[in-house]
Amino acid sequence: MKVLLISHNPITTYNNMGKTFLALFSDFRPDELCQLYLYPTVPDTNHCESYYRFTDRDALRSLADRRVVGSEVFPDLEHHIEFSSEKEERIYRASRNQGGVARLGRDVVWSLSHWNNAALNEWLDQQAPDLVFAAVGEQELLYNVAMTVARQRGLPLIAYVCDDYYYSSGNGGLIQGLRRKRLRGKIRELMRTAALTVTICRELTDGYAETFGVKAETVMTCPMICARPYVGPGPGPRHLVYMGNIEVGREQPLLELGRALDAENRAAGTAHTLEIYTGSKRPEALERLAACPAIRLHGFVTGAAYKAAFDSADAFVHVESFDENNRERVRYSVSTKIIECLASGRPLLSARCLPLAGNCPRQYCPGQRYLLRLLSMSRMCSSCSWRCCWTLRSGP
Fold first, then answer.
1. DSSP secondary structure of 180-191
2. How far apart are CA 155 and CA 315, in angstroms?
């Protein structure tokens, strides 16, 4: 059996979705996998026999030039680079391209583009997949690609739902409301088309099965990482590490945590830090974080740099915004970073709200006093620490 993966991101060792694919298909041979993806990046693993890429730029250029057809991409096993070029990164990171108008425009461009071209279909003929596994997301364009390929080739389609875009009411004005309406229509169409729906949590599985009357299964997100033994804190100041984006309101709890660290440093003469590794480029959020003396900002890291940053942590941090809109947005989300941190042999500190904390041991103390206790403990947690979650509430 050969599976065609359709997604925004390729299989990689450095991207959350890429790592999820590595885990989901770890028992598959490379000749049992091929992938069609849209992001302007290069895979860094040969876990797939072949990769084909058709990007937003290809879609836009194909409106005027039908010779633009995308291409087969070969993995770069030595470099772990998120974007193919700095220009591509600037385009994708630009805040103006994240709004509702830009996203709606992206869907329109793709609907008019020449993505379903002879070169892609020749590649699909060569790969001869037996089924489609589609991780779709919040843009209707990928729903169209996945369903078109599956229908034209008579292939069963498995829909992989790793976030909720159907039940969430969201926010925004007329354009966002139009996007949500169109996307919900695509989700309903996908559910009618799919032979099986796979979600990342039982709540989504039960919801989709009830709402759409479909067969649904739960496969929880889990990167390929083994639990490590407990690692005690080293001498000197403690370094808390956050890895991930700072969108959906996450910069605020990170800033509050940094300020709590700064207050403790000034009161006790310590030099504890919050190390933030993020690919986010939103200037106003980065400036707010950089203004806090206890916060050190780093860019997106991969490969050896990622391992060094990971190993440098005395404790890891996971944050979510607690306001109503953002809480609803990430209600069903489970980051692969959480699993990696829980298996790291180090404590995981949650500032404000951790969605899965209901299943973990908790300890509530006033913010700075509890933070002091955490930072000063000779053993921050027991030998089973990687299973535990420490929750910090902001307070006096």
1. HHHHHHHHHHHH
2. 46
